[in-house]
Design goal:
The protein is α/β, with parallel strands linked by helices and 289 residues long. The protein contains 10 helices and 11 strands. The chain has a 7-stranded parallel beta sheet. Helix 3 crosses helix 4 and helix 7 crosses helix 8. It is globular.
């Protein structure tokens, strides 16, 4: 049985663990429109045809670009498609990422996501922590989370998740609201969330890593490429297969604006890594305390 048939609970549904991230459907730097809108729409439609039932997007991609593409390509949506979006950040006119944590900003973001996606309720809304734009940093998320809970009580959000957060922030958030998923940077070379993944798995909570090839050193990339070559696969396919085998609660959202790369990414679900390959790959990542 392939990994593509494996599912996990997300937003109240059993969803294929290999999903799709829409970030690359915006322009360079995730800012402005993509140069080829027709190809972007084809990628979205192909993803759903290939079995994707989890699409990750946000109104601050572009801004507005990816949500409008998702709506144009896929609306009306399949009943079993789970759309996950993010709030907590905004863009300035130069494309910089800025915090947007106030109740007013979060309300506006949720309403914008609803309008641009053509929805009456959002399946899952991830609150992205912005105490450090590039990595998790401690700080209280209580006020923005409470604002999302109020929007949930209004019927605009079904489930709440977190992004770019520490283990302590996850624990604190769970005192305020059930958490549907956690979305953080994690891959072979960046394994600081190993303990958090295990904690979430024990609770039945999805962990969604982003940047499956982000932060690799040249040496680590060379080692990954050697393993990939030995398996007649691409480095991206091996990196995704490793994540799928890492823990059953890991759900993937690899992004691309290329139909060919989409098919290559989806094929990673058919790749089972042998013990010798896993041994080599596990040496790439150094678990950080």
């Amino acid at each position: 049985m392939s990994h593509a048939t494996f599912t996990y609970s997300l937003g109240g549904r059993e969803v294929n663990r290999l999903g799709y991230g829409a970030m690359q459907l915006a322009g360079p730097g995730v800012f402005g429109p993509h140069a080829d809108e027709a190809r972007c729409m084809q990628v979205l439609r192909d993803a759903v045809q290939l079995g994707v039932r989890h699409i990750d997007t946000s109104d601050f991609y572009g801004p507005h670009v990816t949500n409008l593409l998702v709506k144009k390509a896929l609306h009306p949506y399949a009943s079993d498609l789970t759309l996950v979006t993010k709030v907590g950040a905004k863009r300035d006119n130069q494309g910089n990422w800025l915090p947007a944590f106030s109740a007013e900003e979060l309300t506006q973001a949720v309403e914008d996501n609803l309008r641009h996606l053509g929805l009456e309720v959002l399946d899952v809304v991830n609150l992205r922590s912005m105490f450090d734009v590039h990595q998790p940093a401690e700080g209280s998320l209580a006020e923005p989370l409470q604002a999302l809970v109020r929007l949930q009580e209004r019927g605009l959000i079904r489930h709440i998740g977190l992004s770019n957060v520490t283990a302590q922030q996850v624990a604190d958030a769970q005192q305020i609201s059930p958490i549907a998923c956690v979305q953080n940077l994690y891959n072979l070379a960046n394994r600081q969330d190993d303990a958090l993944i295990e904690q979430l798995a024990a609770q039945g909570i999805a962990y969604v890593p982003f940047f499956p090839l982000g932060g690799f050193s040249p040496l680590q990339s060379a080692e990954l490429s050697e393993v990939a070559q030995s398996l007649n696969a691409t480095p991206m396919q091996v990196a995704l297969a490793w994540l799928l085998q890492r823990s059953p609660n890991i759900m993937l959202i690899p992004g691309t604006s290329s139909p060919q790369h989409l098919r290559e990414n989806m094929a990673s679900a058919e790749l089972t890594l042998p013990a010798t390959a896993l041994e080599k790959l596990n040496r790439i990542g150094v678990v950080q305390s």
